[in-house]
Amino acid sequence: MALSSRHLLGLQGVPKEDIQTILDTAITFREVLERPIKRVPTLQGKTVVNLFYESSTRTRISFELAEKRLSADAINFSVAASSVSKGETLKDTIRNIEAMKVDMVVVRHACAGTPQFLTKVCDSNIINAGDGIHEHPTQALLDMYSIRERLGRIEGLKVCIIGDIAHSRVALSNIFGLRTMGAKVSVCGPSTMIPKYINDLGVDVIFSVDEAIRENDVIIVLRIQLERKAREYFPSIREYARYFGIDQDRLDKAGKEILILHPGPINRGVELSSEVADGLNQIILRQVTNGVAVRMAVLYLLGTLN
Ligand code: CP
After folding, report:
1. In this structure, which residue's CA is closest to atom 3 in ligand 1?
2. Do 58 and 198 belong together in one domain?
3. Which of 45, 84, 113, 206 has the most CB atoms within 10 Å of its CB?
4. Where in the sequence is the domain holding 82, given as residue range(s)?
5. 100 and 26 both lie in a single domain
6. Has residue 227 got a pLDDT over 80?
7. Ligand 1 lined by 303 (C-beta under 6 Å)
8. What pLDDT shows up at residue 254?
9. Over the range 118-135, which residues count as b (16 or more CB within 10 Å of their CB) and which as e?
10. What is the CATH number of the domain that holds 75?
11. Atom of ligand 1 nearest to the CA of 57
């Protein structure tokens, strides 16, 4: 079944049927990842460029692996080693890359809206791999896949996103995606990190982490983004860890089952204690594995059916 758009720019406005199709298609590709030969010929002859203007470990490697597992030709663009360092514009860069006959572009950029801009200046399918503080749709899709895999459903679950909501593309994509799939979504964090428009998105605000753990089935814990000046929004890292960090004592005190997700990279001892980051409630590395299957599904659905 084809998706309703030929690009994946975000999850805002993406229909439930599209999300369902991506998650269901990913189940097949997840099985491929368990085979001795982890490769299918699905995108043979297609060329995908990974255009990463911002650092990344998980997303970049995950997309590259997904492309290779689908037998596509994967080209990695590194800003430092490219003509961007000589002053070439994004528009000229993408038009020159496209002149070499590529089919799909995966883009990460510090500026919100970059993927939308690319749809105006080139013909390739565009996939957003994270644009500034806007959206990170494949992260939210892999989070939803992982929640559904573990708990059997998304509809009716109570999910709280904890941390710097105002500057998190992971939070925004999850709010859109989870609500579309029927989850009840809330957010929790320092008041300085909760955007003023949050109620317009249909989510509740919880200011106590203990209440967030007590009242929800799932928590998605966000990284404190020190590179985006997160330190300016609370007095000290120690204070953040004390009031909003998740440790084993907090989980034990709640005395209930809770599923913990984190997009990575983790600031150990800040948003999660090491004990919790490696503990029985979390599925952090499972999210990373599932991410390859989910990205294979997105590439397949956009690359062959749109
Ligand atoms: N989760 C995530 O986007 O991680 P990277 O920044 O390492 O890609």
Report:
1. 59
2. no
3. 206
4. 16-136+289-303
5. yes
6. no
7. no
8. 93
9. bbeebebbbbbbbbbbbb
10. 3.40.50.1370
11. 7
